Amino acid sequence: MDALPAHMRPERSFQGLILTLQRYWADYGCVILQPYDMEVGAGTFHPATTLRALGPKPWNAAYVQPSRRPKDGRYGENPNRLQHYYQFQVILKPSPPDIQDLYLKSLAAIGVDSHLHDIRFVEDDWESPTLGAWGLGWECWCDGMEVSQFTYFQQVAGVECAPVAGELTYGLERLAMYVQGVDRVYDLNFNGRDGADKVTYGEVFLQAEQEYSRHNFEYSDVEMLFEQFKMAEAACRKYLAAGWKDAGNGKEHLMALPAYDQCIKASHAFNLLDARGVISVTERQSYILRVRELAKACGEAWVHTEAGRAS
Amino acid sequence: MPDLLLELFSEEIPARMQAKAADDLRRMVTDKLVAEGLVYEGAKAFATPRRLALTVHGIPARQADLKEERKGPRVGGPEAAIAGFLKAAGLSSLDEAQIQRDPKKGDFYVALIEKPGRATLDVLAEILPVIIRTFPWPKSMRWGARSARPGALSWVRPLHAITATFGLETEEPDVVKFAIDGIETGQTTFGHRFMAPQAVAVRRFEDYEAKLLEAKVVLDPERRKDTILTDAKQLAFAQGFELVEDQVLLDEVAGLVEWPVVLMGSFDQEFLSIPGEVIRATIRNNQKCFVLRDPKTEKLANKFILTSNIEASDGGKAIVAGNERVIRARLSDAKFFYETDLKTKLEDRLPKFEQIVFHEKLGTQGERIKRIERLAAEIAPLVGADVEKTKRAAHLAKTDLLTDVVGEFPELQGLMGKYYALAQGEDASVAAASEEHYKPQGPNDRVPTDPVSVAVALADKIDTLVGFWAIDEKPTGSKDPYALRRAALGVIRLIVENKLRFPILKAAAAASVDRSTKVGLDQLASDLLSFFADRLKVQLREQGARHDLVDAVFALEGQDDLLMVVRRVEALGKFLDTDDGKNLLAGTKRASNILSIEEKKDKRKFDGAPEPSLYSLAEEKALADAIDLAKVGASVAVMNEDFESAMSAMAKLRPAVDAFFDKVKVNDDDPKVRENRLTLLNEIRVATRAVADFSKIQD
């Protein structure tokens, strides 16, 4: 740690925090991926988690995922709610026996000393109705602040996890606010520099939060979004149907990933429509079900692909 | 006798599951021991966030030997029977069996099976894995590489170690040897996650508990609670404050720490402008911290108490500072929500309710609010409430459901409505109804008394009841998902405790207007009334009254005035405690019994007035006169709602009834006289029905 120049230190630089986590998990042996190039609501949606959590093959990966929650936009006025934020996601399959210790050491790496801070694992059962997924685990608290979610996946995309993967999700802005001692997300030091060289989170994202809040709540094109949802849903089904192939010993699927992209698209279109308040309570349930059906069909396809099956 | 120590060491167990899990572990192990013939002296179980522990002391070292005699076929019986007997008894030939003489039925074979008792250590090694595998966690999970295999262990969170020892105090105990999913039992546990994470070797419960304490783990949850409560009170007191005690929170917090360290933090005074309940909900629900009050003003102080799991190297400064920051952010949110809520008038939230489905078959919340408004306006005059205020109150009562604060803290529904209504200048009664109309929530909750609140509360509950009755979604057995029993009890308590004359059937009819119902309206009303009768019975029984008296009163026609029902039941109860009451009841029952026998015999009823010219005995005439007198006296008294007097009028009947049974033979040889006497008996029954149906009263 002493070797790090001041501007790279996780306790004063947002990007330093990200780099430290990446280095830590790379050192553990994870594949360090880049964000998925689509709009998703959480790091879990990245196929490196949703799909790779399925099937028997070991898989250890970590990546930052920009996450979009259109409904959480606050026009940049709330000190800690954002419609776009970063998650740092770690997926370890099978979950190693010392995964809790690995997590605690990652906190130590970013400067959270467990002899000085009160770190707690507080019950939090995780469920994603749109992904047909659930797991058990905790919210991880540091001095009363939730800094991560820790989940043992039991089922994803309607498929039982065998073996079970452990998922760690760090809320990067919150964690950074904590280690930097900042109360307003926009005040985070992004690049760790001082004076004129300093770039804050607000300088990078405040305008985006304002613009997207306007878009999400007032102007997003509802007709287009309804259409996009339908098109994505139809395309997903089409690719799934086209991807099945008879192999020598049973069925094989050749297009699970492109099909799953369409499932992600449908999910995001739904989130935007939901934010616009144009989906009634009863319809809402049926949209969630429709996305779940897509996710399940993709999961079923995935376990018949090279990466998803046993051999 | 030897003792058992069992510890199941895992990752963090949800706080809310710990107490039951400890209890389940104790019950399952001790039940199994007893079933195996191993009677123990005592058992105690404990839970911390990371372990379930059990000590069972005074278990015999071995099971007693079992001697069993197994009866076989008769000597010289069929070969197949003998072969079967040998096999079942585990004998290799008949030489090993004995012959029992029986001169009557013939001699037969007997096998003496001696089953030596097994060592308890072996029994434990057999039963403990089964208990662990079948442990009733509300939710359990698989983990790690083994989770891919069929039959992998399921536990609440990953299980890491099992300590299981059995032995005498004076000796080195044995490890109860078994393995589950690759976890082998041993004598090694671990201390506090951060303060003493190293392995701890243990022998038996006494040194286990002591060594854990050295390793910064307080095993007994009661002891952790004591520490938290005592320290919290002391910290508060030292600064001139008082702890707002909260048992549920205390239980939860004690389940989140192995080594409780109580610390105090504070927040900015400016947040005290938010209602105290909102501050408390924020701090309690989100941060699991206690709040403090100023004992002089009874108002919340700008302080909170947190329970940390470590003795921090800086004495807790960083922990307090961190918690203060989170609480500041949370309170900022709450304050923002509260202030945003204040910017929108409550009535302006109503259009949104049109889109919220209350129940699939019962329409939207918007429709429901309109129905409640209309019903409350009809009820208002019946309960002495101002109609306009009642309408306004019903109009606004549910609107806080769409405020940000209630969205965040659903338990503040109603209360926030009151604050917001007052803030927008509503009448005090109108504002109060937002909170009060949900009451009473149960048998011990306060009953509102302001007529406006009473009217809205009745309308809300009756609309719910009639609605669910109309779609035939009544509570069954233990299932009552819409809390309809609570709603009915609420109606009863509102009426009875406010001493209201309230015709339930009329109100139910008003609530049925414009509804499509599965059953006819009359059927619905009578079903609903009998539901109220059942609830009233439960309620009165809990207050020590006799439930059969409720039946006796409800059996009369048109009893939908609950206050009168209750008064009548009270008067009847008192009357039946007197000698007159008891004897009249006995006499009436005797009359009823005779009548039902004779009615069956003759296949007819004996209604109508008796014929005076057929009275041949003085007692007949006297009874007829007494009945007339009692009837008139009782019905006048009932009309005046003076049930005590009605009962006294009935009491006057008693000597005549007694004398009649004493001197008069009912089944006279003259059929005409017999018929007349039976008709007279029927009149006793008729007369008593002025106050209650005596046939429903148990002796």
Characterise the protein shown here.
The complex is a heterodimer of chains A (311) and B (699). In chain A, the strands form two sheets. In chain A, strands 1, 2, 3, 4, 5, 6, 7, 8 and 9 form a nine-stranded mixed β-sheet that branches. Chain A has a two-stranded antiparallel sheet with strand order 10-11. By secondary structure, chain A is an alpha+beta fold. Chain A has two domains: 6-216, 2-Layer Sandwich (BirA Bifunctional Protein, domain 2), CATH 3.30.930.10; 221-302, Methane Monooxygenase Hydroxylase, Chain G, domain 1 (Up-down Bundle), CATH 1.20.58. Chain A starts with 13 loop residues before the first helix and ends in a 9-residue tail after the last helix. In chain A, α2 (47-50) links the parallel β1 (31-32) and β2. Chain A has eight helices and eleven strands. By secondary structure, chain B is α+β, with helices and mostly antiparallel strands. Chain B has 25 helices and 18 strands. In chain B, a hairpin with a 3-residue loop joins β17 (357-359) and β18 (363-364). In chain B, α7 (276-287) packs across α8 (317-343) and α15 packs across α17 (504-512). The mean pLDDT of chain B is 91. Classes of the chains: A alpha+beta (311), B alpha+beta (699). The interface between A and B is large, with 42 and 50 residues.
- Main sheet of chain A? 9 strands, mixed
CATH-defined superfamily of the largest domain in chain A: Bira Bifunctional Protein, Domain 2
CATH C-level name of the largest domain in chain A = Alpha Beta
Stated plainly, the CATH topology of the largest domain in chain A is called BirA Bifunctional Protein, domain 2
**Oligomerization state:** heterodimer
Approximate strand percentage of chain B: 5-15%
H/E series of chain A: HEHEEHEEEEEEHHHEEHH
Secondary-structure arrangement, i.e. CATH architecture of the largest domain in chain B: Orthogonal Bundle
The number of distinct β-strands of chain B equals 18
Average pLDDT over all residues of chain B: 91
Computed CA radius of gyration of chain A, to the nearest angstrom: 20 Å
Helix vs. strand class of chain A: alpha+beta
Helix content range of chain A: 25-40%
Radius of gyration of chain B: 37 Å
Count of strand segments of chain A: 11
Number of helices of chain B: 25
Strand content of chain A: 15-25%
Count of helices of chain A?
A: 8
Number of self-contained structural domains of chain B: 5
Q: State the shape of chain B.
A: flat
Helix amount of chain B, in percent?
Answer: 40-55%
